[in-house]
């Protein structure tokens, strides 16, 4: 396996703003880049730094409706506030700001470049932290997402005859990606997320298994609030990795949202950066060509820390836990007192853990009964797979 890995980036990722009161802060991209540079994680000879380019408008047509794209482009070029709620545009969740169309094309183009680096340029993995907009639907913006870069990139791979596994580890269900591939067996989608019972986007229940030829190729594992590292590890080892082994994809795409971390302001999960590193190690160990995308994360520093640890694993570099002085001084000016790259170990309150474990056990039993046989899988402990 090639040891080359590609980091897709542009200073233009931070050129736009969703609004001062909006939870999505584009500053997280520059902060992550600064942290990676300060820890000397972008200078190894095996690391390729690749400038992101705008996706061609024709690339977007593989998923998005033309009338939606035309409206997004029109609003992007208009003066003053505009809204069209049929397309999910212009509300507080998905604001329209000057240049938004080119900005989301840049983020999408970065994902397409990550795919090119993995499939055509000899890299074993590539990371675009400005990707992972998994809530965008074919004709509607949703959940801060305007273009679904993952779907567009996966469509390009499927058109080349490849079987793709998409693993979504964001705290929110990857509903837009599920929508795109619900009826096909050419893409296996697995989403681990906080339950949609009372949490956006109110979907991703365990019984959503696909339809038609795609039945059994959509997998959802919703977590109860306050699920912690112990529950997350079980999901990885007992569901994700065995399914990857059974499906035998040609390419792996993962969405690595950092809103799973326990201090994220919008979510109720209690994972730590230990879960991020574990997931990264397990995915890298598959040996599959791997495209990783950013996704959610609404505490800027925690998101930067998590993505830094992800990149260290992807690029097979060791990184110390203590942050260097120049990084600490930068963080101090931003109002952060953190001095470590990794979180301290954390377990949920026993009552919360018991509820979370009980829900996981019920969901796992359902998948073992209804899903695993479709893939010729035995239950955990009696079958092979990645470990």
From TrEMBL:
Signal peptide span: none
Keyword Hydrolase assigned: yes
Keywords for the protein's UniProt record, in alphabetical order: Acetoin catabolism, Hydrolase
Listed pathway(s): Ketone degradation; acetoin degradation
Stored SUPFAM superfamilies: Arginase/deacetylase (SSF52768)
Histone deacetylase domain segment(s): 22-313
Molecular function terms, GO-annotated: histone deacetylase activity; hydrolase activity
InterPro entries recorded: AcuC, HDAC_I/II, HDACs, His_deacetylse_dom, His_deacetylse_dom_sf, Ureohydrolase_dom_sf
PANTHER family, A to Z: HISTONE DEACETYLASE HDAC1 (PTHR10625:SF10), HISTONE DEACETYLASE HDAC1-RELATED (PTHR10625)
Similarity-based family: Belongs to the histone deacetylase family.
Name of the protein in its database record: Acetoin utilization protein AcuC
Species annotation: Syntrophotalea acetylenica
Lineage of the organism: Bacteria, Pseudomonadati, Thermodesulfobacteriota, Desulfuromonadia, Desulfuromonadales
């Amino acid at each position: 396996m090639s040891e080359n890995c590609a980091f897709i980036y542009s200073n233009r990722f931070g050129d736009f703003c969703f609004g001062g009161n909006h939870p999505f802060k584009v500053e997280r991209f520059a902060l992550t880049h600064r942290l990676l540079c300060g820890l000397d994680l972008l200078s190894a000879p095996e690391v390729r730094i690749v400038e992101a380019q705008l996706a061609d408008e024709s690339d977007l047509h593989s998923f998005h409706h033309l009338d939606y794209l035309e409206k997004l482009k029109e609003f992007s070029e208009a003066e003053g506030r505009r809204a069209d709620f049929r397309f999910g545009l212009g509300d507080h969740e998905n604001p329209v700001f000057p240049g938004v169309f080119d900005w989301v094309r840049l983020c999408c183009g970065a994902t397409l470049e990550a795919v090119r680096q993995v499939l055509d340029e000899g890299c074993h993995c590539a990371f675009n932290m400005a990707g992972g907009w998994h809530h965008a639907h074919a004709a509607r913006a949703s959940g801060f997402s305007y273009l679904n870069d993952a779907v567009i990139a996966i469509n390009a791979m499927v058109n080349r005859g490849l079987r793709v596994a998409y693993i979504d580890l964001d705290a929110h269900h990857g509903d837009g990606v599920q929508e795109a591939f619900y009826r096909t067996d050419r893409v296996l989608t697995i989403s681990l997320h906080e339950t949609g019972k009372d949490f956006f986007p109110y979907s991703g229940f365990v019984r959503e298994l696909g339809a038609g030829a795609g039945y059994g190729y959509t997998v959802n594992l919703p977590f109860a609030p306050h699920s912690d590292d112990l529950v997350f590890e079980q999901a990885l080892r007992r569901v994700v990795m065995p399914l990857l082994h059974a499906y035998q994809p040609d390419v792996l795409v993962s969405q690595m949202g950092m809103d799973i971390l326990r201090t994220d302001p919008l979510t109720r999960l209690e994972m730590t950066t230990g879960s991020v590193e574990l997931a990264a190690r397990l995915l890298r160990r598959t040996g599959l060509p791997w495209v990783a995308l950013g996704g959610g994360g609404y505490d800027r520093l925690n998101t930067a820390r998590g993505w830094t640890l992800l990149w260290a694993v992807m690029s097979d570099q060791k990184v110390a836990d203590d942050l260097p002085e120049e990084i600490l001084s930068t963080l101090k000016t931003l109002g952060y007192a953190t001095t470590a790259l990794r979180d301290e170990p954390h377990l949920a309150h026993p009552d919360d853990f018991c509820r979370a474990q009980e829900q996981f056990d019920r969901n796992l039993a359902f998948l073992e009964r209804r899903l695993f046989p479709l893939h010729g899988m035995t239950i955990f402990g009696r079958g092979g797979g990645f470990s």
